Amino acid sequence: VLLMSAGAAQAEVAVFASASLKTALDEIAAEWTAATGTGVVVSYGGTPALAKQIAEGAPADVFLSASTQWMDDLEDQALIKPDTRRNLLGNRLILVAHGEAAPVTLDAATDLVGMLAGGKLSMAMVDSVPAGQYGKEALQSLGLWASIEASVVQSENVRTAMKLVELGEAPLGIVYASDAVAAVGVTVVGTFPEDSHIPIVYPGALTVSAGPEADAFLDHLASPEAAAVFTGNGFLALP
């Protein structure tokens, strides 16, 4: 192992972040590095997979989750610093279609099976990944889950679920509004009613092993400058 003096080593912040944050967070991290000289290395993935890696000792300074559940899980294991935890962002749950498609109102009368025409509904994993969990909850609350469950194809994270719709491998997908901002060749056909699922909240926190630079980066994620990038990418700023 090579040991360098603090001055010689490039300071870095290791961030584990929900895949849905990628477009916005890449931009924020690049601007932060340019302004401070501190590098930011982001590992993206499905929230449960990232939480599991942190629990198994993966070196992360900051955890950005797409649901409070997985942050609660790490807090219960005393793996994050609870006093640094904050709710950073919100999001909306939408239905997207490959190519051109007419808008629909998403309610109990929506004929999703008919809209699929034998194709698949692309979702993140419905029992563990937040986007999939929110999606399943919304479909259940509208009374649509039982009819559509057999047509669902599940992915390890929401960006992969969106990619299947972009590629035309699934005619429809349930993703976040933020995922549609950078997507190519898809149409947003509807937004799920807010009362059809629990609020979509992205908490952030420092891990117990976080280095000193991580605190400043997490603070920056709550700044007006970062909020402008997030909202420009389809997220909701929380008060």
Helix content: 25-40%
Number of strands: 11
The geometry reads as: globular
What share of the residues does DSSP label as strand, in percent? 15-25%
Q: Gap between N and C termini, in Å? A: 45 Å
Radius of gyration: 19 Å
The residue-averaged pLDDT reads 94
Which stretches are low in confidence, meaning pLDDT under 50 for 5 or more residues running? 1-9
Tell me about the biggest sheet? 6 strands, mixed
Which sequence of strands runs across the widest sheet?
A: 2-1-3-10-4-11
SSE run: EHEHEHEEHEHHEHEHEEHHE
Indicate the topology.
Blueprint: E1 12-18, H1 22-36, E2 39-45, H2 47-55, E3 62-64, H3 68-76, E4 86-90, E5 93-98, H4 112-116, E6 121-124, H5 130-141, H6 145-148, E7 152-155, H7 158-166, E8 172-176, H8 177-181, E9 186-191, E10 201-206, H9 212-221, H10 224-232, E11 236-237
Parallel strand pairs: 1-2, 1-3, 6-7, 6-8
Antiparallel strand pairs: 3-10, 4-10, 4-11, 5-8, 5-9
Helix pairs in contact: 1-10, 2-3
What does it look like?
- The protein is built from ten helices and eleven strands.
- By secondary structure, it is an alpha/beta fold.
- The strands form two sheets. It has a six-stranded mixed sheet with strand order 2-1-3-10-4-11. Strands 7-6-8-5-9 form a five-stranded mixed sheet, sandwiched between helices.
- Helix 1 runs antiparallel to helix 10 and helix 2 runs parallel beside helix 3.
- The chain is globular and about 55 Å long.
